[in-house]
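Handout, page 2. Input:
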Amino acid sequence: MPKMSAQFESRQPSVIRMAQIMFDDRQDKTEAINLAIGNINLPMHPAMQKRMNNLNASGSPFENGVVKYSATSGTQECVDAFMHIIASSGFPTDNLHAHITEGGSLAMELLITGVCGPAGSSEDPLLLIDAAYTNYKTLCQRLGRATCSIQRKLSDDGKFALPDISEIEAVIEEHHPKAVVLIPYDNPTGQYYDQDAINELAKLCVKHDLWLVSDEAYREFYYTDGEVSSVWGITEEAVPGITGRRIGIETSSKVWNACGLRIGALVSDNELFHRKAIAEHTVSLCSSVIGQYIFAGLLEESHADLQKWYANQRDYYRDMLFAFADGMKAVLPEVIVSSPDAALYSVIDLRNMVGDNFSALEFVKWCASEGEVEVDGKSLTLLTAPMAGFYSVPDGAPNPGRTQLRVAFVETPQAMQAVPALFKGLLEKYLS
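Output:
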């Protein structure tokens, strides 16, 4: 048989998809509560549902059954919808440029291609703040681009803290990255970056001539007393020289409950970068025109109505996040649960409960492939994501993710209420 590439031969599934793949191979009747990936189990915004349910209505571009390509940059109304959404959070959009991508994932791939390199070299890496969303590292590997990182630590009180600016600057001076990736409402940690913290990172980017990349997938999902923050909230007055070096990633997946729609956007205040990103994207022709049409229904909503949507979403997740943290500590007093400050994830750390030989990765695999406990007469297991894959550590160095797991709040509130007891049962069975 012909040989595959070395990259394919060595490739393993993403840690956020691994548990589901293993569980799908099971032959028993065990059911799973799947918290491994942010696959939201809620209906889309009503304006989007209306368009989805009336694709063949009079006036729809698909009423005659014709589905043509759009321009690579996307339909104008879909671009305008993303701008409308950014503006609804109170940020100016006059000098922003956007084009539509196949979900946030393609926007990530394009920005890595556009700012890092050359391919196959350790030069011009992407700077990640560990624990970092694993797909940035994986996409850099696919594209032959390098990464470097600065590590956050999870304290016993559940707080992730941004490393001191001097530590971040030391990494910049050592590795000479081309861009810093920021997730203001963080995946996987649930940390919230207020505008002051974003501005401090922006000052470093200006000082060292870097791009500032902000993954805005969870914008408006914060549960503290702060206010909405964003890369688009940085002003020239606060950070002189920031204009022209910002890149943002938008998506329909999280705030709008449309993971499978696969519509995102790459936004920048640098027109040349914007044009080159479209040129690079032309090889993919265009993003789903049906997805663009459905998402663009949000353009018909007022800023006030969108703000009501954000508030309702925050209330929904806040209740689940805080109830989960309390529930986990009630059944496992020594467990560390990350503070529920933002996004829709929690990190569970078992370091105070397990020995040096414990591996969260192996525990996740066991839960997916054979683990089960009986709950109300049903055989149940739990799917989560092992955190080791969210850290970049040198060979032989300790990985904080060895004892950590990420859970995504994507099941119903009723299912989430069952998770602490289920987790405890599975862990006790695994350790016995």
